[in-house]
């Protein structure tokens, strides 16, 4: 992980008699260690299986709208309520519009939720192995946190989340493990914490996870966050959303409108709504990816890999004899990008995004050759 430069850049000059030496502007800087996103290749021909994007294009309805897009609308500020998009999400999930909050990718939605709900001074809780942005936001906003360890099989221990806390965030299915915890466990955590807001990050839920959305009507302290970046093939557009109680969504909106009113640009609002309305294309895309994932599981297992049972569009795979870091380097050299997270618990795994059938065959054919040597 990249470290920010924490050195003092004042030049060392001759020491003068200056007891009231002024502090440098740098002493007032907010120092943070930023999140490191997956690499975006700068050359053509890379097989990109490192950031869990969708390998298929967005709905053809998006393409049609993009072709017809009138740039004259860009003169005007976009609708600050993003009503068209909010309506399409509310309709799809059969909730009220006042239960929907939208943002610039789920990263924006999650960051706003941290800022809004985690304000007690008590530590918030999230697992030791999970999405590596959570601790970055906590540090940025000065929120104390604890990271209870997942068990030896990367499963959540629910008792860890039934202790005093200032809020909870759980990715379900989890990243980078791909594991989905049953809804009964999520419900116990939500119902056992009436004094905290619980965020369930469902970035990957469409690939076979069990969504907590049915619980939203029952628990005011639950916020479910999803994204257009994976199953809806629109990572480049940056659209995410949260569904929760009208009260929780009102709190989120108050913070968001104290920060930046016009986050959702006009194309995102129009094209996002069109994508949300194309249910048949969405289902077809998700089914293709799930079928390729199951095929990839079988082939990788035959090559000596093991992995938790993924309910996502990626596998978290470890090889019986070749260290993950070596495989990561060899794959990269061959133009196949996957994700590697160094660290005690994750350092012998590769997170491999499920690509198209052709990309999957290219990955397997490289691995078959490499592992034979
Ligand atoms: N949550 C999880 C668990 C993720 O893996 C990602 C993707 N990096 C996100 C949220 C954010 O996705 P986006 O901002 O593209 O919606």
Outline:
The chain is an alpha/beta fold.
What keyword list fits this structure?
33% helix, globular, 12% strand, five-stranded mixed sheet, binds 4'-deoxy-4'-aminopyridoxal-5'-phosphate
Describe the structure.
It is a single chain. The chain has helices at 60-68, 83-93, 105-117, 134-141, 183-191, 246-256, 266-277, 279-302, 324-333, 357-372, and strands spanning 47-48, 100-103, 124-125, 145-146, 168-171, 198-201, 222-227, 240-244, 305-306, 314-319, 336-337, 339-340, 350-353. The strands form four sheets. A five-stranded mixed beta sheet has the order 2-8-7-6-5. A four-stranded antiparallel beta sheet has the order 9-10-13-12. It has a two-stranded parallel ribbon with strand order 1-11. The radius of gyration is 22 Å and the shape is globular. Mean pLDDT is 94; it is low at 1-13. Helix 1 (60-68) packs antiparallel against helix 7 (266-277), helix 2 runs parallel beside helix 7 (266-277) and helix 3 crosses helix 6 (246-256). The protein is α/β, with parallel strands linked by helices and 373 residues long. It has ten helices and 13 strands. 4'-deoxy-4'-aminopyridoxal-5'-phosphate binds next to helix 3.
Quaternary: single chain
Strand order of the largest sheet: 2-8-7-6-5
Tally of alpha and pi helices? 10
Mean pLDDT, all residues: 94
What is the ordering of alpha helices and beta strands?
EHHEHEHEEHEEEHHHEEHEEEH
Distance between the termini: 31 Å
Poorly predicted ranges: 1-13
Helix-strand makeup class: alpha/beta
């Amino acid at each position: 992980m990249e470290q920010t430069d924490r050195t003092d850049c004042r030049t060392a000059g001759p020491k003068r008699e200056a007891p009231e030496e002024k502090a440098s502007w740098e002493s007032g800087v907010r120092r943070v260690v930023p999140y490191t996103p997956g690499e975006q290749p700068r050359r053509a021909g890379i097989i990109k299986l490192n950031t869990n994007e969708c390998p298929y294009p967005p709905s053809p309805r998006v393409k049609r709208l993009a072709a017809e897009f009138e740039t004259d609308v860009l003169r005007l500020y976009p609708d600050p309520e993003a009503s068209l998009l909010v309506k399409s999400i509310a309709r799809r999930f059969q909730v009220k519009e006042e239960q929907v909050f939208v943002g610039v990718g789920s990263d924006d939605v999650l960051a706003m939720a941290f800022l809004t709900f985690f304000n007690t001074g008590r530590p918030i809780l999230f697992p030791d192995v999970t999405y590596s942005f959570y601790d970055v936001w906590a540090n940025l906003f000065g929120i104390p946190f604890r990271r209870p360890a997942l068990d030896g099989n990367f499963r959540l221990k629910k008792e860890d989340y039934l202790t005093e806390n200032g809020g909870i965030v759980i990715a379900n299915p989890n990243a980078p493990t791909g594991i989905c915890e049953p809804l009964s466990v999520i419900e116990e955590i939500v119902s056992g914490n009436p004094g905290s807001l619980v965020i369930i990050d469902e970035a990957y839920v469409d690939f076979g996870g069990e969504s907590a959305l049915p619980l939203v009507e029952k628990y005011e302290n639950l916020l479910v966050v999803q994204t257009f970046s994976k199953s809806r093939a629109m990572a480049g557009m940056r659209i995410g959303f949260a569904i929760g109680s009208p009260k929780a969504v009102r709190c989120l909106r108050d913070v968001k409108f104290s920060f930046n009113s016009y986050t959702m640009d006009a194309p995102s609002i129009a094209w996002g709504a069109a994508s949300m309305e194309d249910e048949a294309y969405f289902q077809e895309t998700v089914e293709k990816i799930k079928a390729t994932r199951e095929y990839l599981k079988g082939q990788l297992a035959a090559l000596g890999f093991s992995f938790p049972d993924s309910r996502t569009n990626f596998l978290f795979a470890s090889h019986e004899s070749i260290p993950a870091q070596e495989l990561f380097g060899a794959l990269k050299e061959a133009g196949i990008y996957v994700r590697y997270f160094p660290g005690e618990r994750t350092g012998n795994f590769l997170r491999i995004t499920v690509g198209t059938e052709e990309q999957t065959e290219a990955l397997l054919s490289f691995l078959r050759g490499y592992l034979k040597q």
